[in-house]
Automatic annotation (TrEMBL):
It is an enzyme of class 2 (transferase). This is Sulfotransferase. The lineage of its organism: Eukaryota, Metazoa, Chordata, Craniata, Vertebrata. GO terms for biological process: catecholamine metabolic process; xenobiotic metabolic process. InterPro entries: P-loop_NTPase, Sulfotransferase_dom. Residues 43-295 form the Sulfotransferase domain.
Amino acid sequence: MEIPDWSSMKLPSRPELFDFEGVSMVHYFTDNWEKVKNFQARPDDILIATYPKAGKSTAWNFTGKQPSILCNDAPERQTSQPIYMRVPFLESCFKVIASGTELADNLTTSPRLIKTHLPVQLVPKSFWEQNSRIVYVARNGKDNAVSYFHFDRMNMGEPEPGDWNTFLQKFIEGKKVFGPWYDHVSGWWEKKQTYSNLLYMFYEDLVEDTGREVERLCSFLGLSTSVEEREKITKGVQFDAMKQNKMTNYSTIPVMDFKISPFMRKGKVGDWKNHFTVAQNEQFDEVYKQKMKNTTVKFRTEI
């Protein structure tokens, strides 16, 4: 499938948020819903799931960086073909390119790497029925909110974010695309307790010790890798390396205005301290305690 020519594309108006199956959504992720819902997963598929701006780029670079050990993906494709074509975004339907389901169905690599932001209850049933492997990456809510804010500022495919305070209130209230952060991270955590083919990873762990997390992932995927191969993967998923790769950083897509903010901004743990006021931090902590009181998942807001 050829890389789309974006030269004549007009920037769209920002979409409106609406309720879909009990989750806040925009039409880009529901327009193709029948095909998403009925998508046929395969036993060897690897689904990479995250809440928006929680570390998906790191996760898919983990799984797709070394073709020799995983998906038989030609090395030149990693620098010549955009990530959205190599790792289809399952629920996406942006019209100017093939839908996520079509891109996934047309993948020639095996296993297929597919990404999603769907909360666990909206994931197509076939992934569970086929016992597909799933890697979920969670990020602490404060850093996730900051990253999501800057993403919304530069992405015309997202609703208008407003200023930081306006955005944070919406985030705390769960009025963001793909629903509340609290429900997303805890829902996937609960699924892990009953679905053994799910690896739940934390963004903070990936930043703290990338090599250790590479080993965890390789073990989960049943990969036998040499020290040299693991070192290559670790080097390839370093944030600065990914940020500079035009096939990974989304700089080829015109709906994203890189003059406002890059798609991959800092990749740090604790950047929330540069954004939250004392009052905002106290409010977030209070809501967090209430919303997360019934789950055992634990997050670190600094390392």
